[in-house]
Amino acid sequence: MKYALILLDGMADYPIDLFDGKTPLEAARTPIMDRLAVASEIGLVKTVPDGFKPGSDVANLGVLGYDVRECYTGRSPLEALSMGVTMKDDDLAMRANLVTLAGDGDFENKTLSDYGAGEISTEEARALIRDLDDILPLDGFSLHAGISYRHCLIAEHKRPNELLTPPHDITGKRIGEYLPKGDLADRLTDIMRKSYLILSNHPVNEARAARGLRPANALWFWGEGTKPAIGSFTAKYGRSAAMISAVDLLKGIAIAGGITNINVAGATGTITTDFSAKAMAAIAALKGGTDFCMIHLEATDECGHQGDALGKKLAIELIDEKVVAPIYESLMQSGEPFKMLVMPDHYTPVSVRTHTSEPVPYMLFRSDSVLGHNVEYSEKSAAASGILYEKPWELTEKFLA
Questions:
Q1: What is the pLDDT of residues 222-265, one digit of tens each?
Q2: What is the pLDDT of residues 233-245, one digit of tens each?
């Protein structure tokens, strides 16, 4: 038996007037997912436990069958693993976004206009991080470059006692009331303020401005946590496993869980990603002896954060055509029984532009038996099914049984 988990990050959404009251999933043309839906079990699963923020870290750990109440130590430590950062037991990791701040006047009065600095390229971002690392006063801290706008700050010998706001939660808002609070507040705010002074006139940003692109003119810290310790996925479920993702968070989860990371050229984590290359990598892994493969697709989440309903609909259509279809067809041609699980990790509604906590719709297909008689895969049909997994690992266990 082979197992393919296709995770459309943040895909779930609310009805949108632009789509005549349909969600992007309902409005999208998805002939392959429609074909699967007819014979699939469709229902809801609660990926974010009560008391936890609906981050991709918590939700994806839940999707992979981990109880975050027992193993979760924060988001950034998982990303640090992917960057090759070695954390000590008493280190504190924080995500360091390169963001775009706009407006005149004092630093506190500026507006956060883009949490990802126009999806800055990794090459440009690493040049900025390198120069910040050389210039900023970072005694007791270390700055590490990641992918695109996603980077990491390590504070030595610190415990989590900070209140840090995710930048994608405050797009378009004045930053003053959202600056860091806690033991490290003054140091972190000082680094952020000085990063703005350094980056505002940096040659990389001057070149971006000349091309009509948004500048990456400041650091923003969030997602703090301590060294992670989650158990082996293979030991837990008895399946060899691979992860395909463009983002450090998922790569870090894979490393922590002993899951093989498959790096794919052209994978960007946005709607410009090479969807086909991701699908081909998954097919090769499954043909090559891997039992379970998770294909993580970030484009739907990015479009939700940007309030881009049309982009989100297009991303779903591209995933159906370039990821779901070839993986399904390859598995069918293999003659070996297989299961496919298609789902988001959380909602990222375009109307609110951030994550929300409600249970998400899933579609579970099995090649050798009919699991349901639904006509579509959507938020509405999942809610109408009467099926709700309150504990996400129960769905994972069913999928991998």
A1: 999 998 889 999 999 999 999 999 999 999 999 999 999 999 99
A2: 999 999 999 999 9
**pLDDT tier at 400 (50, 70, 90 boundaries)?**
very high
Which residue reads 């070695």 in tokens? 86
Q: What does the pLDDT look like over 64-110, one tens digit per residue?
A: 999 999 999 989 999 999 999 989 989 999 999 999 999 999 999 99
Q: Say which amino acid occupies 309.
A: A
Write the CATH number of the domain with boundaries 2-73+229-400.
3.40.720.10
**Domain regions of the chain by residue span:** 2-73+229-400, 84-225
User: Residue 293's CB: how many other CB atoms inside 10 A?
Assistant: 26
pLDDT grade for 374, boundaries at 50, 70 and 90: confident
Q: What gap in Å lies between CA 64 and CA 393, rounded to an integer?
A: 7
Buried b (16+ CB within 10 A) or exposed e, 328-357: bebbeeeeeebbbbbbbbbbbbbeebbbbb
Model's pTM, two decimal places? 0.85
